[in-house]
Write a structure and sequence with these properties.
By secondary structure, the chain is an alpha/beta fold. It folds into two domains: 1-59 and 160-264, Vaccinia Virus protein VP39 (Rossmann fold, 3-Layer(aba) Sandwich), CATH 3.40.50; 62-153, Adenine-specific Methyltransferase, domain 2 (Orthogonal Bundle). The chain is 33% helix and 16% strand. The chain has helices at residues 19-22, 42-46, 61-72, 74-81, 88-95, 102-114, 138-151, 162-169, 198-205, 220-225, and strands at 32-35, 53-57, 155-158, 174-178, 211-217, 230-237, 250-257.
Length: 264
């Protein structure tokens, strides 16, 4: 049995289906790798090391706390999770619980995300034909925690607004992989698609010293905001709706950069 240990959780807007397309576009001659919108870290974890300095950042404190606990206290987290059951009753108890310690908070968040439908953490995950959702293997989960613990060994975990983070770490050898909330689609706990300041991000990225690669929805607004930059079209299957027999299941996205990516 093989386990894909290069990820820990699923997340709204995660780049599981595009990471193999994104990875070859990331320059090799970089000194610092930064993800201002880290999310589940699919691209960060895709490779054992992108640069000598690596920084994960997210505005969602639940994600930041989870990865900090995985980095510094993996055994304590595994101890919390080892006694949990894939049951609807326990899922609802966690939904209504108020954990005290950071380890308990990480365990609650991790349990709800991994045992829910679509990784949203709000609905108990039932499956009919595959071993997922509430039927996830606990053994595989613990293996992933160990793998991500090792991967995060030299990764700095931040919890800042993207503008302050980019200003802090920008230099000629810096590379920013940005996967912000899209202009349309699902929102996030900390910001909705309507509230996110797309223009502010464009203004910041337009004036950095380093290089950036940006994932976005293919919309007229985003095309207008980033006209003049290198831009390629990609498409993927919609994750949650990826079921046999569903039509119109293709989602179009853009990859945008301030360095040449079209020929790559």
């Amino acid at each position: 049995m093989t386990v894909d240990s290069k990820h820990l959780i699923n997340w709204v807007g995660g780049k599981r289906l595009l990471r193999k397309t994104i990875a070859p576009l990331i320059p090799e001659n970089i000194q610092t790798y930064i993800e201002p919108f880290g999310g589940a870290g699919w691209v960060l974890f895709y490779k054992d090391k992108w640069a000598d300095v690596e920084i994960y950042n997210d505005l969602d404190g639940r994600l930041v706390n989870l990865f900090r606990i995985v980095k510094y206290h993996p055994n304590a987290l595994k101890e919390e999770l080892s006694y949990l059951l894939g049951s609807r009753e326990m899922f609802m108890q966690f939904m209504n619980s108020n954990p005290i310690t950071d380890v308990q908070k990480a365990a609650k968040f991790f349990f709800l995300i991994t045992r829910s439908f679509g990784g949203k953490g709000s609905t108990f995950g039932c499956v009919k034909k595959s071993a997922g959702g509430a039927c996830k293997s606990l053994s595989n989960t613990l293996i992933k925690i160990d793998a991500i613990h090792k991967r995060l060994d030299k990764v700095l975990i931040e919890h800042r607004d993207f503008e302050k983070l980019i200003a802090q770490y920008d230099h000629e050898g810096a590379f920013f992989y940005c996967d912000p909330p899209y202009s349309t689609g699902c929102g996030y706990e900390v910001t909705s698609t309507e509230d996110f300041e797309h223009e502010r991000l464009r203004d910041i990225l337009s004036n950095i010293k380093g290089r950036f690669l940006l994932s976005y929805d293919d919309s007229p607004k985003i095309r207008e905001l980033y006209k003049g930059f290198d831009m390629i079209e990609v498409q993927r299957q919609k994750g949650i709706n990826n079921r046999q027999g569903i039509t119109n299941n293709i989602y179009k996205e853009l990859l945008i950069a301030n360095y040449p990516i079209k020929n790559v």
